[in-house]
Design brief:
heterodimer; A: alpha/beta; 20% strand; B: three-stranded mixed β-sheet; 21 helices
């Protein structure tokens, strides 16, 4: 059975590229343009991984990660994506429960490898 | 911006409408009574008067003069004057027109010059027309006109708002659908750039070639730029190929020739990120690096940082304009976010422009280029005090303790700003040999120097503290406030 990956990213171009890439890797992908929609879906449906941008409208990535960890799942792998990579931010992201962190701009292949490693590990 | 335009249109409409009403209402002098002539007679406009009948003058006590006039009558003003030969009741003279219509007229023109409006050819005929139109009720007509113009203004503004919003929504809808189409075409090329087949790319390019209008091409460029910001690796070469094969650089090149600086900035950015490197940093960017507009200059500099990653600071060779603080910060953060590491910067410490030298000194400190210690030391004797100050700061950042003795010797001749930095450096590398130097400053220095010296000495050891107390005794307790200040635990945290 295909694993489901949730992508929460406000950039529609990147959304589309990630959707193509992850689908070609054999995953079932659900894409959302903001954190609120993603949370609503995750509360009602099973999923195997979350990839979230940190800066989004309505609900940012930090809040999404925190909410997932507190109310939905403590074990599902989460990858945070951001354009900034200050030390404080990265530390905070890992502290609130992200499993991995990737900085924009990134290689589509690199993300694919990280997803595979985390999903298989979990 | 759109709201401001609407408000502007409303204001202009209101002003025009109000003025039109005002003009027609204030220029009423002389419609019926064409004014005085030298013989003190009032000429009555015959066109407004029907066949006359009885006439009566009931005196001045009720502030009204009722006159019944015949067609083409000439009325003497004598009947309107009081004993002092002044026009009486001139604000409320009523001309009774047979047929039941009464019109209020002023007779100021008997004493004053003609209204400026009456000098406009044909204006009197216009007013006469107005009078006919209003059937004698001119004030009512003016009120009606005012209301009409006011309502027209509101309708006009409402129309402008509706049309603007409709147009905006239409454009947004078009942009969104075109953009979605472009994303759909490009995404298969970007998600796995290592396995992109030539015919896939050709097919995508052929599809995008259909979008031939300039604004459609701009949408493709926008999507390419967005992809460039989010993806790296082989995706970038795919993006550049698409940009080049579709001749989208022509759009960017026409932008950089535009009159407006922001179009230039957009064009430069697109060329820097997507254009062919050799052409961009070889012939395009150098032309814009010394432009008068700072934003254009900055974009050209950032273009060099993006395109010439192996030698990003080559723009300094072309730059003749000031390297402002804003440009320095922007350039630094562009390097930081694009993982651009500057080369060894020693050679730029010899250029004439002090702003460039200071910026390079800061970069040497940030990127910890210890190889450039000798070049930094040379800047300690630079003829510009701001460069000397930055050189001391950089020496401290590079932990170059060897310059301490040299700086102590130069201390007396330095400016206060540089002295402060020297004291910080001495404090960082302080030893027994520095105590005499610091005590001398305590006796001779300014407030700031004394405070810094006391801080350094107080933190050394007990023996030095005893020397400090001895100095305080000799200075009649003048050091006591400084000592208590640096001894305060809260102040000890701030170093």
């Amino acid at each position: 059975m295909k694993k489901t990956i949730i992508v929460a990213e406000d950039n529609d171009m990147l959304n589309r590229v990630l959707e193509f890439r992850l689908k070609s890797d054999g995953y079932n992908v659900k894409v959302f343009a903001n954190g609120e929609e993603a949370i609503e879906f995750m509360q009602n449906n099973p999923f195997d991984m979350l990839i979230t941008d940190l800066y989004m409208p309505m609900m940012n990535g930090m809040e999404v990660i925190q909410l997932v960890r507190e109310t939905i799942s403590g074990a599902v792998p989460i990858i945070a994506v951001s354009v900034t990579h200050e030390e404080d931010l990265v530390t905070r992201i890992f502290n609130i429960g992200a499993n991995d962190f990737i900085v924009k701009p990134f290689r589509a292949g690199e993300l694919s490898i990280r997803v595979k490693r985390l999903i298989e590990g979990s | 911006m759109r709201i401001n335009t609407n408000i502007l249109v409303l204001l202009i409409g209101l002003i025009v409408g109000t003025n039109l009403s005002f003009i027609t209402s204030t220029a009423e002098t002389g419609i019926y009574v064409k004014g005085a002539n030298n013989s003190n007679e009032i000429e009555v406009d015959s066109s407004t008067i029907q066949d006359g009948s009885e006439s009566s003058n009931n005196g001045y006590d009720n502030r009204q003069v009722k006159l019944t006039v015949e067609k083409n009558d000439h009325l003497s003003t004598d009947s309107l004057k009081d004993d002092n030969n002044k026009i009486k009741h001139n604000d409320a003279l009523k001309v009774f027109i047979p047929g039941g219509r009464i019109t209020t007229e002023t007779f100021r023109r008997l004493k004053e010059e003609e209204s400026i409006w009456t000098r406009i050819p044909g204006f009197e005929y216009f007013l006469t027309f107005i009078e006919r139109l209003s059937l004698g009720y001119r004030l009512l007509l003016f009120a009606g006109l005012f209301a009409f113009f006011f309502l027209m203004n509101i309708v006009f503004v409402a129309l402008v708002v509706v049309i603007t919003n409709w147009n905006k929504n239409r454009k947004e809808k078009w942009y969104t659908s075109t953009r979605r189409h472009v994303i759909d075409v490009l995404s298969p090329l970007l998600f796995n750039p290592d396995e992109v087949k030539t015919h896939d790319q050709e097919l995508a390019e052929h599809t995008l070639e259909m979008l031939s209008k300039t604004k459609e091409k701009q949408v493709i460029i926008d999507v390419l730029m967005e992809a460039r910001r989010n993806l790296t690796g082989n995706s970038i070469s795919v993006l550049s190929e698409v940009y080049s094969n579709l001749h989208l650089d022509k759009v960017s090149k026409s932008d950089i020739k535009s009159f407006s600086w922001f179009r230039k900035v957009v064009g430069l950015r697109e060329l820097s990120y997507l254009g062919e490197q050799l052409e961009v940093d070889g012939s395009i960017l150098p032309k814009y690096i010394n432009k008068r507009n700072q934003n254009v200059r900055l974009e050209a500099i950032l273009g060099f940082l993006i395109t010439r990653k192996e030698e990003p600071l080559v723009f300094l060779d072309y730059l003749n304009r000031p390297l402002t603080r804003w440009i320095q910060l922007s350039a630094y953060y562009t390097m930081y976010f694009n993982n651009v590491v500057p080369p060894l910067l020693g050679k730029y410490l010899k250029v004439e422009n002090p702003q460039v030298v200071i910026w390079c000194l800061r970069l040497i400190a940030i990127y910890n280029q210890v190889e450039e210690v000798r070049a930094v030391t040379g800047c300690l004797v630079h003829n510009n005090e701001r460069v000397r100050k930055a050189a001391v700061q950089t020496s401290l950042a590079l932990e170059n303790w060897r310059v301490k003795e040299m700086l102590k010797k130069r201390y007396r001749g330095e400016l206060l700003d540089v002295k402060q930095e020297i004291l910080k450096l001495v404090g960082h590398f302080v030893g027994e040999k520095d105590v005499d130097f610091l005590l001398t400053i305590i006796y001779e220095g300014t407030f700031t120097e004394v405070r810094e010296s006391v801080r350094i000495l107080y933190r050394m050891d007990e023996k030095v503290r005893a020397d400090l107390l001895e100095a305080d005794r000799l200075l009649l307790g003048r050091l006591a406030p400084f000592v208590s200040h640096v001894a305060e635990p809260l102040n000890q945290v701030i170093i």
